[in-house]
Amino acid sequence: MLNHIRTSSYGVPYRFTGGRALARALWLPDGPAVLEFDLSRPGTMAVRRLSPEGRLPGLSRTSAAYRREVEARVRFLWGLDDDGRHDAAIAAAPDVAPLRERFGVLRILRAPDLYEALLVAVIGQQVSVAAAQSVRQRLMDNLGTGIRVGSGPRAADHRLYPAPRHLLAAGGTALLKHGLSRQKAAYLLEIAGRAAAGDLDRDRFAGLSDEEAIARLCEIKGVGRWTAEIVLMRGLGRTDIFPAGDLGLRVALQETLGLRERPDEKEVRKIAERWQGWRSYAAFYLWMTLQSRAL
Description:
Elements: H1 2-7, E1 15-18, E2 21-28, E3 31-38, E4 46-51, E5 54-55, H2 64-77, H3 85-92, H4 97-103, H5 114-123, H6 129-143, E6 146-149, E7 156-159, H7 164-176, H8 182-196, H9 210-217, H10 225-235, H11 247-257, H12 265-272, H13 279-291
Antiparallel strand pairs: 1-2, 2-3, 3-4, 4-5, 6-7
Helix pairs in contact: 3-4, 5-8, 5-10, 7-8, 9-10, 11-13
């Protein structure tokens, strides 16, 4: 999982604070904050809130309700509420079981909300990972909320993605200066407008099937099926999504299954039927075969 964050587009907000510890800024119930996730003890994640004075002692000074809310957000972010049945299915599937042996038991790292998931996916459309990461970092540096933790030479600045109101206030002209095309700037502004209106709250999608959720997301200008499927995985935590139009997945499938030719989208969807019920995890393990090259 740590290697995934080091090489993934979703790793941009994270900063490693140790070999097996990392931190990122998040919006918490009382405003922006920086949480550190320490995975140095096997099977355990220690979560600490960082402050200008350094590490606070866990979240023990806060109310029980606050801790439950923070824990729920962390569990969603790291996929800790997935019931684990996907792992047994992967271990029993001859074609992807070797990937589990290679990468270990994985959880899908998610965006904290639909708004961030959409920003990340739309910025990444039809550009390289490096180019997308550069745009995201510039948006965070120039338009996102900053939080400083620690003091003196150990002080570190963490940035959030721009809040919807900050993107809307910046406007299209400012977004062009961050490396976005005019078209993508317009898409981001529409996403920000919908988020500001409350249309992207996760609970509004809770009762929808995967196909219904995809259809609703595709109503947003700039969001096609590929983007919607990525957002369902990363922003809604849906576990049976396979973005068959993703070029990386098609390459990974060809290499993993030893196919003579690269499968097209229709063929990919047919192949993925064998992993029905946990297709998101099959896709994640296949993506990891490509990311491992960057390590």
